[in-house]
Design brief:
alpha+beta
Length: 166
Amino acid sequence: MVEPTFSAFLGDRRLATGALAEVLRVLHARADGQRAQVFADTDGELVKLGRRAEIAQALAPPTEPSAQPVTLLPRHLAWLEGRPEGASAALRRLVDRATRDGVGRERLARDAAYRFVSMMAGDLAGFEEACRALYAGDANRFEAAAADWPRDVRSYARRLAGEGLR
């Protein structure tokens, strides 16, 4: 399992990127580190780190995540039970196909970039056009609209958008 990464910004400058514990150590070593904003690289969400207990937990060794339960409606169960290869094989095949085809990855990447730019670039020139370009998947239009943004903000937004911009 790949450990999630995070990026810390102070104003429009990126200070650190890496595992949460690593980023927190960098911020802790800085006098102005408490003012930094930390974003999850997976979904662009702002991470709230205001309490010492949360920071101590983040610095603790990672634990294995628990499996998320899957809830299916009766119609889903009936469809799966009707598959000649069995429900497990049908589910594996559906997951493999969705993973291979990248179903939803572009949208998730665009949403992550939007969350970040809403926080960091919402007041900057070109914000609205950059968002339209982002959801249109137009990398050239996005770059043109964000051309005057601070370099770290622009490059991180582009990184989050990843597959969502072509």
